[in-house]
Design brief:
The complex is a heterodimer of chains A (about 375) and B (about 600). Chain A is α/β, with parallel strands linked by helices and about 375 residues long. Chain A is about 45% helix and about 15% strand. Chain B has 25 helices and no strands. The chains are: A alpha/beta (about 375), B mainly alpha (about 600).
Chain lengths: ~375, ~600
Amino acid sequence: MNNIWRKRLSGMSLLLVLVTAGCGGGTITTGSGSSNGETAAPVSSTAEGSSSLAQEDTGETIYLYGNDFVDIVAPEFAKQTGYKIEAVHYGGGEALAKIEAEQGNPQWDVVMMDGHGSIRSLADRGFLMTDWTPDHIGNLTEYGSSLVPEDHAYTPISIHASAVIAYNTNRLTKEQAPKTWDEFFEYKGTAGQADPAVAAPAYPLVSALFYKWGIDQGEQRYAQMMGNGLRVYPKNGPLGSALVSGEIDIAALQESNAYDLKLSGEPVELVWPEEGAPGSLRVAAISKQTKNPAAAKAFVEFMLEPETQQMLASLDSSDSFFTPLVKGVEARKERETNATFILPPAEWAAEHEVQIKTWFADQNVN
Amino acid sequence: MKNSGTRWGVGVALLLFIIIFLPLLAVLLNAILPGLFFGNIQFQGFGLLGEIFHRPLWRQSLLNSVWLGIGTALLGTLIGASLAMVRARWNFASGRLLDAGVWLLLIAPSFMLAQGWVLFAGADGLASRLLGMNWVTAALFQPSGLMVIMALSKFPLAYLTVLAATEWNVSQYGHAARLNGAHPWTVWRTVELPLAAPSIVAGATLVFIDTVGDFGLPAALSTVYRFPTLTYSIYSAIYQSPVRFDMAGVLAFYLVVLLAMAMTVLLWSLRRSRFDFLNARAVRMIKVRPKSTLFLNGVTIVFLMMSIGIPVGSSLCVSLMKKAGNKLVWPNLTLDHYFSLFAASSTDHKQLSFFEGMLHSLTIAAIAAGISIIIGFIVAYVLTFTEFKMKGWLQLFSIISLAVPGIVMGIGYIFVWNQKWLETFNLHLYGSPSLLVIAVIAGAVPYAVRVQLGSFGTISSSILNAAAVQGAGTLARMLHIVLPLVRRSLLLAVLTAFGTSVFDLALTSMLQPANYVLMPLVIDQAFEFGRYGYATAATVLSGGMVLLIIVLIQFTGEAIFKWSDRRERNRTKIQERHTHTVQQGGSPYEFNS
């Protein structure tokens, strides 16, 4: 007697997913619409000087995946250019995982993050728009220009130290603290660093030292240090806490974390080694499959403007500790004035990434 | 009846296949066919599967997972089963507290408990700074210490399993033995323990499955102590560059092998016993009041203090302290962290908006709970009352998402649902909250099914057969016979599904639509960026709110049932004054027993 209903309902159970999909479809627009509200500019205003380019675009919101500054640059970019942008914060690893997982159907337009090696690897595998030179490329300093890749797959924005030598002042005096990376690796007490498999700045650290010493000697020194009890923490946050609590005496700690602890009155002091700190290059790159190239390009141009960089370098947070790569921008006063970096070429860092990370992860097993 | 049952069975099995099994399959396929989902099919061979015996990290992760799982299963079952046997036999004051605590632990997300443990036992934690117990860090952050932490968080599964079986099975045999002059200890040893044995095995298996598949606890604990487990190595394989989904697939494969072995044991013990964990049984043993309850109360309270008191208490303390490292004294106390929950805007990724996160998470959990209950109801019906041939598969599909870590399911969901061709059907769900809803449903289905299976077991199928003979269709039988009988456990199932859904971290971090704030992310981000005050205040307040909602709905539901029972009874009295009718309103829900 209930045959029709019975059939309908068994069909409905199958279609439940589809039904939720339909309902959910409605929420997508409301959901992202409400968060768009803060960043999106009025649709009517178009970017000055790029109106011809803008015609290629769909006019839809572009998506920026980034590991720093996303909260600040997106609204400012939208305000200045009129393009709609949604910036999403991910850790470096998360951003890359998302980009890779989405490769069948990319949802991002621009990526801005640390680690030129990883971005180089994306470029080599055809993820990125190449052979486009930003108009503002001339704004770069000499050092900045030297870091521009030949195929223009990405644009360097700024550089900071993925690690400086930080020490606990309750446990060590200035004289006792290691001054160079050689001394750091010969230290007899407890030391720590972040895990290159998890923390975004840790591969730039490890790869810079491997590059400096050569792979064989790098492995040898790390193996010795691990034998001495080098502690590897997943990320720089817990590493900093361990340094403050005295669990470790010294740490190869990311610059911003080190300055943050020092300025907030914790017993932490840092040394910028003379031979340089391992550099972490922040770059911006555009997806090859972006549907809005004009807006994406406008974003890279925006990041190369001195005003943008000065705004970021003047922020009242530890994010502002970096060396701007655009001329006429002043870095923070509290920071090392003569900041030098060890930076392996992007190709080298990309080529050896799997090898170094795999070696490191396998060594570092309890 | 048979055909219709099969139709329902096929329908629901297909649904579970799509939302639970397909994403898992997608990840596993990556181990041999990387690029399958990116339009680049190339067979890589099975060589990578053998790598696990050569790569030290992988081998260690597998070993760590196995040892942690076994250790936790033994210890957790010892705690859970002993408490359950005590609880089933004796009536003591803290018994209700124990039941409530067990439910609380069951629905509390593991990353929240882990956060509490880290705040307590970390080198910088409350134990060393506040209580001067410096040894705690070294004692807990080593393999056996982790087992203790895990066992204290996972014992509820064993407790509920054993409690269900102990309460149900023993009375008549025990009484017979006692009548023949057996000593209570002999009765327990020779009658009760063997009868409870299958449920103990089942409980241990569930603890093992939950431990091995857990991501939140190992991930949070490894911020202070490096102890790679399979789930954690999957996480780091995904988050390294270039991303190795094939490696994640290999590790996920071994995880699934472990879980499959555990599940075989579980199904075997299921067959040997009339048991179901998380259930609501009608017939119960009458509890004895022991001569002195002091000892029982003492033991219960000590366990609750350790399993709930430490993690929750630590979070509460930190949320009230200006500076976490300082002493718990007046000048260091503040409510600022709670006020800041309402001041933060969602534009700061370190301090996401509490209000927005709560709203989104509660909405998603409520929708998911509702839908998963309907699915769970149909699954339990098909499993209990029909002759559907593929019951085994249905069982498997309905439990597997409990075991497979959210992070694996998350990648699988991206593979399956971020396909270009789906856009033409308006089904491109990746990046929209609706995919989160589906994923959360997948996570809640095992709870929904288990709870309902328990109460369905108490219904005699003869009532349904009688109804079928009278011409009632499957739907009519479900709605007019089964539904009223199981409504209390249905309410319990909804609440459990809701409670477990609100804070699903791993899934939400993979599938979160751009800038869509969700509660677990609010807590996790703040914790990761060292904003412990904000993270703990958010934990305490959101946890409290969810608990309050559950308790309120529970009370409202009970009140409505009572009211409708009374109305029904009055009507029956008027109609048949001479017949004495007892209306059975379903199995009593044991939360407050």
